[in-house]
Amino acid sequence: MQVHKSVMLDRCITLLTPAIERNSNPIVIDATLGLGGHSKAILEKFPQVKIVGLDRDQSAMKIAKENLQEFAERITIIHAVYDELPSVLDSLGFKKVDGILFDLGVSSLQLDEAERGFSYSHLAPLDMRMDQSDPLSAAVVLNTYTKGELVRVLRNYGEEKFASRIADNIIKARASGLLNNTKDLAELVKSSIPAATRRTGGNPAKRTFQALRIEVNNELKVLETAIPAALDRLSVGGRMVVMSFQSLEDRIVKRFFADASESKSPRGLPVEMAEFAAKYNLVFRGSESASDEEIESNSRAQSVKLRAIERIAA
Ligand SMILES: C[S@@+](CC[C@H](N)C(=O)[O-])C[C@H]1O[C@@H](n2cnc3c(N)ncnc32)[C@H](O)[C@@H]1O
Question: pTM (2 decimals)?
């Protein structure tokens, strides 16, 4: 059985428990099923729960199906991008749900499958598609985007200070047929960055790989659509937990959670009217991180930021 160490597993379950236990037939959405680690723990702990698990990666889904075989009657696994959540729920006849979990980013399966091209430490084709039936791969981005478009991707999604130099070198290398795999790209980034800067901040290719992955999978735009859509589908008393692994994603989650939990009362009203009151409550302020102990045994947990919100009014 292939495994992925699920991040902040106990904490996710604890946070979802009040929402699950208040209903005799609870529905939980695992918007990022992966290998099914979080779903399995929920199905084991709550015998009455039914889960709808989404993933855009068919090879992850196949493994999740095997890992969750014994719960086949209580989990529906669907190939979808999570911004399709409303239409998935409509097709299943679910108006509202009790719990929603987003465990964003790539799974260790995706990182470990060298040929997927997600990791700068493996020699692989320039792919990075989470859904291998999508037309846009990293190779397409690197070989067809203009310099301006490459700079935008590297700056916006990688927060890369040397975006312009890297983009120039990408254009040169592709014209000479020298940009064919992840190793070529990692070397190109390294040689585009001044030696003094290279000594700090880990592998210099990290930001470029992150930026390309976000572009290829349209990750931020999809998240911006998915979070409000998911909030809308929570029932009163329902809870949503989101784990982000990089600041661009966490900023989006934070912004939507802050807006949803704020009163919309016009200034100066002496008393708050129910129609303007916030419909959601943050379960705790800010974000939570994994414990040192967890980080020691699972490096993926190092950058996690977990946020949780509860619906308090219809
Ligand atoms: C970190 S893994 C989830 C791991 C899972 N919680 C577990 O414990 O096994 C994230 C998964 O979400 C999927 N994913 C990422 N973005 C997605 C999106 N926009 N729509 C659907 N699935 C997505 C990835 O393919 C990956 O399998």
Answer: 0.96
